[in-house]
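2024-03-11 09:14:02 INFO queue: dequeued item DMT family transporter, len=290
2024-03-11 09:14:02 INFO validating residues
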Amino acid sequence: MNRTKIPIPIFIVIAIIAISFSSIFVRWSDASAAVTAMYRLFITNVLMLPLLWGHLPEIRRIRPREWGRLAMSGIMLGLHFLFWMQSLHYTTVASSTAILTLEPIFVLAGAFMLHGVRTSREALLAMILAIIGAICIGWGDFQFSGTALRGDILSFIGTVAVAFHMLLGKKLRDHISAFVYSFFVFLFAGLTLAATNVYTGEAFAGYPLRDWIVFGLLAVVSTIFGHYIFNWLLKYMKASSVSMTVLGEPLGASVLAYFLLGEKITLVQLGAGLILLIGVALFLRSNEGD
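2024-03-11 09:14:37 INFO prediction written
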């Protein structure tokens, strides 16, 4: 793996905290999931646009096949935002984010089938430990009927989509910078959501100031300080390791939901969070030490 002198663990913590705010911001907005996600990404593109000029030589070197992969990675990210953010309107933050913990399993399986990437037995056991902890965080909120079940299914579909996004991103990030990769992936994801909104007849304007503030917070906090950092990390870590760090989101989101949304959090969930963190730490030490 590529190495950098930059303290990667610090960036991992920043990114986890940033994405943990996503579910809180979504709950604060009355706009539909597709509209919220679309403006989140387009605002991010606008903020990144002034720096794009300096990357024009790199952009010109991108080959047609790579443009296709960038588009597909963006479409998968757009679908992830669409389904996962919609799930938060039907189920709890803890339940929805706990389902996201399936992502590293899909990424690990995909990396093996597509690229022959293997991992150690110790790393697999650590992954299982972390996922058990994450599932326990949301277990009390899982429901197997009604709208909550619908929310859990939407979160599951969103998890499959983001796993594909991560696998495509790892391949592209081997020779495309984090900035260029992120800009166009966010752009393609935003266009995917825009097309969805046109098809469903969603309004593109007329939202109150509160919604626009939420769109901006999602762009700056959760996308730039969250997803952009994870895209950057793909250069220095295995895709399965990056996806494992995302497992910190259920704990972070549950704690934030307790303070900001009034959702309950139990001692069992706190204990499960500790198990999750131990599992993630053990996985990273084993998987990145290969």
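2024-03-11 09:14:37 INFO annotate: The radius of gyration is 18 Å.
2024-03-11 09:14:38 INFO item closed
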